[in-house]
Amino acid sequence: MFENLSDKLERAFKTLKGKGSISEINVAQTMKEIRKALIKADVDFKTAKKFTDQVRQKALGQQVLTSLEPGQLLTKIMKDELASLMGSVHSEINLKNKLSIILIAGLQGSGKTTFSGKLSLLLKTKHNKRPLLVACDVYRPAAIDQIGVLADNVGVDLYKEVDNKNPVSIAKNAIKHAKSNNYNTVIIDTAGRLAVDEEMMGEISNIKDEVNPCETLFVVDSMTGQDAVNTALAFNQKISFDGVVLTKLDGDTRGGAALTIRSVVDKPIKFIGTSEKMDGLDLFHPDRMASRILGMGDVISLVERAQQQFDETEARKMQKKIAKNTFGFDDFLKQINQIKKMGNFKDLMGMIPGMGKAIKNLDIDDDAFKGIESIIFSMTPEERRNPDILNGSRKKRIANGSGSSVQDVNQLIKQFSQMGKMMKMMQGNGGKQQLMQMMQNNGGMPNIKN
Fold first, then answer.
1. pLDDT score recorded for residue 360
2. What does the DSSP assignment read for 198-249?
3. What angle in degrees, to the nearest 10, is found between the helix axes of 370-377 and 406-426?
4. pLDDT, tens digit, 9 for 90 and up, residues 374-402
5. DSSP at 110
6. Which of 240, 234, 137 has the alpha carbon at shortest distance from 192?
7. Which domain holds residue 406?
8. CATH number of the domain within which 151 lies
9. Are 292 and 314 in the same domain?
10. Range list of H helices, 14-69
């Protein structure tokens, strides 16, 4: 996420390294490099120039604190201005109505249908809502089938009318169905086009007028860069949407859309798609994204993801096992599964301050724990419960069964032993913290290739 932009900004900051103070000359040099970096990230020239002018004005004349280098002070100013450029604060989705109607709009291929499924899952699991998905794309082949599969995957109901080719009528009927069947949220997935056209705009505008949604979200593919901003402007002029959803941020995105869409369209980014998985949807926090762009990590989001997977009942059971020294490899697997549920492994690593640069050129397997799991699954139930019985012959059998080496098995046993000791000291939720620490030290990251 924004790796190229982060690299270029870091190189720009090197201009100030070793300088005793911030001056007009060295700030001008740095701002020139930052402006180039933003333009290469597909930020339009006007926005890039305005941004660097604001940073320059704030930087000049400021006293550098004794504990700070000029580069560090400029980083702080940059972080604040980047957050401001992207909206400063998080904007919540409006769910205050007794029946919350959410209209989804965007071009074909932007990820509208997938986002509709992801949003229904998020509202169901985190907001305790009973959502109804509505299939209003009557043009794209298999569009209804696609949203039907997504609805089944996330466990929500779908409203569809296969023989009805009038999206406005389908949307109105869906609202009636929702009211009479005690749904409290309706998510309407509309048709997209390959480009902005009057027919498309007229249709989405008519649907909005008829159903009067409490929230209209415009979904945009972040990989389309500045074109995304231009498309957002056209949609906003016609239907005046309430917020933006950036999809495919885990792909090869330069970041221009995320950085400029708020300032150009004056509408907040509310959600970002972080993976192809149905739980790969995050709330957008401008300040946290600014930190990540500048390589400062995002500890708050990391902690929030950990808390979402934290089970107090299970934690108490773990505490008792740790106290009795009966914590085994089956328990270790449970800890791993909790971390896997937190999201993409490389994305998690990037949230740790200082780790973004360290893992930039590493090829991290999406299932980074596969090697560890293979070794553990090759153990007998007794060996998992009581690792102390693992002798040389058992380790050799486990290595052969898991397609690894005895050295790999020994390394895992060593890490497991170290984590067990640390968890006993921390007594509680320290398992995940220690495991994350192991990752940070690069000692617990399996299946990584340079």
1. 55
2. HHHHHHHHHHHHHH--SEEEEEEEGGGTHHHHHHHHHHHHHH--SEEEEE-T
3. 100
4. 999 999 999 998 888 999 999 999 999 99
5. S
6. 137
7. 310-449
8. 3.40.50.300
9. no
10. 24-40, 45-59
